[in-house]
Amino acid sequence: MKNNYPFFWILLISFAGFFSSCKEKEISPASDPFEGLVWEQVEQETRSSTVHMMMWQGDPLINAYMKDYVAPTLLDRYGITLQVSSGQGKDIVNHALSEIEAGQKKGAIDMVWINGETFFQLKQIQALKGKFTKLLPNSKYIDWDNPFIKYDFQQEIDGMECPWGNVQLSFIYDQNRTPTPPASFEALEDFIRQNPGKVTIPSEFTGMTILKSWLIALAGQGTLDGAFDEEKYKKYSAVLWTKLRELKPFLWKEGQSVPNNLAQVHQLFSAGELVLTYSNNDAEVENKVKQGIFPASARSFVPDPGTIQNSHYLSILQNAPNYKAALVVINFLISPEAQLEKAKADVWGDGTVLKTSLLPEEMRSKFDALANREYALNRASIQSKAFAELAPEYMIRLYEDYRTQFLEQ
Amino acid sequence: MVHRSPMLLFIIVVLVPILLGFLYAVAYSLGLVGVLSEGFSGRAWLAVWGDGRFYTSILYSLVIGAVVLLVSVLIALCIVLGLRSYHRFRWFDLVLYIPMSFPAMVVAFVVFLFFTQSGFWARFAYAAGLIEDISQFPSAVHDPFGAGVILAHVFLATSFFSVLFSGLYQRIRIDEKLAVSQNLGASRFFAIRSVAVPALLQASVSNLVMYFIFVVGSYEIPLLLGNQKNRMITLEAMHRFQHYDLGRISEGYVVALSFAAALLFVVFLLFRSLKRMSV
Hints:
The structure holds two protein chains of two kinds. Chain A is of the alpha/beta class. Chain A has helices spanning 5-21, 39-45, 60-78, 90-101, 116-124, 147-150, 185-194, 205-219, 230-247, 262-270, 284-290, 323-333, 336-343, 361-368, 379-382, 392-407, and strands at residues 49-55, 80-86, 111-114, 151-152, 155-156, 162-168, 170-174, 276-279, 298-301, 307-316, 386-387. In chain A, helix 3 (60-78) links the parallel strand 1 and strand 2 (80-86). By secondary structure, chain B is an all-alpha fold. In chain B, helix 1 (4-29) packs across helix 13 and helix 2 crosses helix 13 (249-278). The longest helix of chain B is centred in the first third of the chain and has 31 residues, at 52-82.
């Protein structure tokens, strides 16, 4: 008779392991972890501790800002060691989801760099620590009245994430190769026909921001504000997909494929295969030219009637092992000096979330003295063309429909 | 006599985690576990099995795997059998090994740099007057036939099979077998085709199947070089795992489970027919 004991033991151990791992869903603790915290005590208690931050690390200038300015200043001034790991959007959500499902009470990450649909998803799975922005001494300088800062993809941030920077989607072209870029989304259609195989829209975050901007342009500014509206989405996206399908033969790869990351679009633009690239950061062309990645003839523009402007934020995860030190780090990142450093075109060029009129005189004059942009448009000149972000469901639907309504047609 | 300790170690370290992972994947796909789960539901299974893209993706992945295997095995056989006189030199195997030492992502990136329409070969063709515009250069990147994906995989696979066949050539004494065949009146070409090639292929069946599975389940190369419309199955699964709609995660598990089952079935059929052929 065959010896089936090994097979029996495999099954027994496996089922025992499996069923013991099935848990009731954890309910977030009712108590507020930020209640009663005294800032001076927080700064004292968190000295000689480490904060783990997860953020997008796709830009060398941003990485240098964090590594060469933020981390050493935090260590020197607050005794906090900042450890940064790479991850954006989906990575952060997947990480948080895995830890929650594994019942991990103390996670690996304290704070995250997020916005929009990531904020939406993290709230959905109750992965955020709670409302903390009022605790931060430097939050008094934030421009809370600015709707582009106060709302994140039409969601009230409600103290659960802290504004860190503000950007507007811009298109980038080479004025030597393209003397006359398309002035509007309407003109973009003719531009694509006149430049067959030279334009594409990637299937990632920036590409979705382009599609959302185009959707707003078709619907009219303000029409899609507020909560997600299925009927409005169907109505205006149908127009968008029809236009894109008509343009398909003229797009890069005849619209049979699109890049799935922005770095590839930048690379194809630099190599001359594409005549347009894009950035969610209106200052990006400035630092890309200075890094030598784009030609010196590269410039940015915002097509009429406008493009989406949004803010990006910092938040603390529900199971952050060192959330108090994360508060200190976030407070430093929104400090006038850190925001000023970040705003410099040769450092990052990211728009500040601070209301400069609330700053001390000396700081205000430093912000005013920031060098004008040489290759990118000045923010003041494009502010009138800024669209508010749409509710996160629009992005979720566009992401899937870009494939089913355009790529697969 | 079967030693129980190594068997137990294998069970605990290898089989149990795999089975646990499998059970978790099944439970997640049925809505039994997961932060956003709402209880037992076949929704994810119906959504995936009712989606034509899933079947297209499986077929596309299997075809890519088969083409890579066919082309790389052919080239490897030509290298090993055509350069028989070099087998006695140790540096021969080292040279064959070099391409395999490149990480897949690096190979994908190099293919991108060389074969995209603004890449090295396009610029060379333009400079040589063979094309008037770089858009006339046939791009092997992001194309619907997966040419770039196949190219990158063939580069790595050819190296692997060349090293494998070179070792087998010596171990199963192909030289002697060829000499015997030729002494019996076979031509050199007939001897290679009817003796050497079948002997090498039969001795490497499990490696061929393993590499086929590896190519079909690859991720980095199709991620960088593949087409967005026709996606390999790994990208199809990841698309659902990383979807902005968190409810689609369970569909990612369905894709992974279904594909694993389909692959196991194909491998089973393959081994069964090979066993029949060798009887």
